[in-house]
């Protein structure tokens, strides 16, 4: 597993939340777990662009940051379910607000993102 060589800068709240939520799929994982998708296979279906390995690693980081918990059932094959901790649940209104902002600025953001991938700096 990747091991960071330098310590993160944690001088303000934005640094802290960035450190905890940094990762392409973490916000979506938190959202989908909140929506009731608990099993790794369910989360994989909700985020098909992510590899199982990456999802597992990011779920482990969320677990280490006490945002999600994991229940392992003693059955064969093993059954694993994730859940949001109270700490994780406290992030849901923040994630919801970010999603609403994205929806409100959908067209503009899509254009800007598309233009940045095309290499252009076109004005809107």
From TrEMBL:
One of its GO terms (molecular function) is DNA binding. Keywords: DNA-binding, Transcription, Transcription regulation. PROSITE patterns: HTH_HXLR (PS51118). The keyword Cell inner membrane does not apply. It holds the Pfam family HxlR. Signal peptide: none annotated. The keyword Ligase does not apply. It comes from the Bacteria. This is Transcriptional regulator, HxlR family.
